[in-house]
Design goal:
heterodimer; A: alpha/beta; FAD/NAD(P)-binding domain; D-Amino Acid Oxidase, Chain A, domain 2; 3 domains; 8-stranded mixed sheet; 11 helices; globular; B: alpha+beta; Alpha-Beta Plaits; two-stranded antiparallel sheet; two-stranded antiparallel ribbon; 2 helices
Chain lengths: 398, 58
């Protein structure tokens, strides 16, 4: 580990890997530090990603990355009624369930191939601040602490991000906007192999949903997220998950338990500071409805590195110069989707199970021309004139 | 103060993200809480998906 780089990336997930790879490709010296002893584990993820989204980054997908091809989704209402979101698209893939352990490692390898350095079991314990400007980080690595200076530090340290705090930025996620999650990797279960299933309802999963994401033959990630303020003794994410699994998959074999938090709050007010950029979950860019964050992490990581490279070339890495990253992602499709989905989430978390039943029943015969949340929302609004008061705020996003 | 039941903790970091004081740190499989910084608000106790955190009387 050297004492100085152009770019220091804190965290070796998809956001950090894409930031490191992109910066190295631009000819910058790059160091990625990952506090865990290995890249890609524990996954802490349901591993789903849309087909169009992942294809934006790769001309072809390595088959090793893909656990399952997904051809549709099934939504289950609180009353047990269900419907599929795929008919018009039948036969086409709409997404994938990844093997993040393999995928994340390959992303880091791509960064290394591009010329970045990566250190595992290397943890940022503090920021190097000079006159309010982030100038690098103190990295604890194998028992000693190294000062690593950088022209730009990219905080890609995930939902449990601490680096912002070291620089004086409050990154606390409000309790009600932190989904507390538990997931089992289950084997020997009867599932539809190419369908992602979503259960909604206050009773089964308050402020969140239960998911089944297939990972192969008779195997799936089965998990739940509930709103943090709904979590208490006897009613924690794992309690709800156990109840669901006992009822629906009593003979399934649990081969892995994963827990985690997913933020569903708005992104940080500013994702740049002097000498500092926030990407992925650390910037609070996970989707407020789905909780999905892989694409947003990769997109923001790549964009941050592009802007950082430009700013370093121009000799100005101030907040004002780095702001181009912030304004660009906010104006992007990802930024608009985050903004819209936050508003949708705000409305949906207030609906009771009767309202959810009624809404989902209304769209159960929907043939979607295009597989998207936007299409679904438009139909929900069209089909539910009685609920117009609740849904009215969404109109401007449609 | 907050006690971590290490045999239950899934070292996921959900508590780290909601701690208003920044008192919690997750180092791989080891969660630590800085009692000097902790204000005993117990948000972490509530949010834990497994129930691994316990508020105990000092």
């Amino acid at each position: 580990m050297k004492s100085e780089y152009d770019v220091l990336v804190i965290g070796g997930g998809p956001a950090g890997a894409l930031a490191g790879k992109t910066a190295a490709e631009k000819g910058l010296s790059v160091c990625i530090v990952e506090k865990r002893p290995q890249i890609g584990a524990p996954v802490r993820c349901a591993e789903g990603i849309g087909e169009e989204l992942i294809n934006e980054f790769f001309s072809e997908l390595d088959p090793k990355w893909i656990a399952s091809k997904i051809k549709g989704a099934k939504i289950v209402a609180p009353n047990g009624n269900s419907f599929y979101l795929n008919p018009a698209m039948a036969g086409n893939e709409v997404g994938y369930v990844l093997n993040r352990k393999v995928f994340d490692r390959d992303l880091i390898w791509q960064a290394l191939e591009a010329g970045a350095e990566c250190y595992v079991k290397a943890r940022a314990v503090d920021a190097i601040m000079e006159n309010g400007v982030c100038k690098g980080a103190k990295i604890e690595y194998m028992g000693s602490v190294h000062d690593v200076r950088a022209k730009v530090v990219i905080a890609a340290d995930g939902v449990e991000s601490k680096f912002g705090r070291y620089c004086g930025v409050d990154t606390t996620v409000p309790l009600s906007e932190l989904e507390t999650c538990a997931q089992y990797l289950m084997a020997d279960i009867d599932i539809e192999p190419e369908i992602n299933v979503f259960y909604v309802g206050r009773e089964a999963c308050p402020g969140g949903y239960i998911w089944i994401f297939p990972k192969g033959d008779r195997t799936a990630n089965i998990g739940i997220g509930i709103a943090g303020n709904e979590s208490k003794d006897g009613k924690r994410a794992k309690d709800y998950l156990d109840k669901y699994v006992k009822k629906n998959f009593p003979d399934g074999k649990i081969t892995e338990i994963i827990v985690g938090g997913v933020s569903i709050c708005p992104p940080l007010k500013s994702t740049v500071e002097d000498g500092l950029m926030f990407v992925g979950d650390a910037a609070r860019l996970s989707d407020p409805i789905t909780g999905g964050g892989i694409y947003n992490a990769m997109y923001s990581g790549k964009l941050a590195a592009e802007v950082a490279a430009e700013c370093i070339r121009n000799g100005d890495t101030s907040k004002a110069a780095l702001m181009k990253y912030d304004t660009t992602w906010r104006a992007s499709k990802m930024g608009k989707t985050l903004e819209r989905n936050y508003q949708i989430k705000e409305i949906f978390v207030k609906l009771d199970d009767d309202q959810l039943n009624s809404i989902l029943n209304s769209v159960s015969n929907l043939v979607m021309k295009e597989f998207s949340m936007l299409t679904l929302m438009k139909e929900i609004i069209r089909m539910n004139p009685k609920m117009i008061a609740e849904l009215a705020p969404l109109r401007k996003y449609m | 103060m907050i006690k971590v039941r290490r045999e239950v903790c899934g070292y996921c970091g959900a508590c780290v993200s909601v701690c208003p004081e920044g008192a919690i740190e997750l180092i791989d499989a080891y969660l630590s809480i800085d009692d000097e910084i902790c204000k005993n608000c117990r948000i972490c106790v509530k949010v834990c998906p497994l129930g691994s955190l316990e508020a105990i009387k000092e």
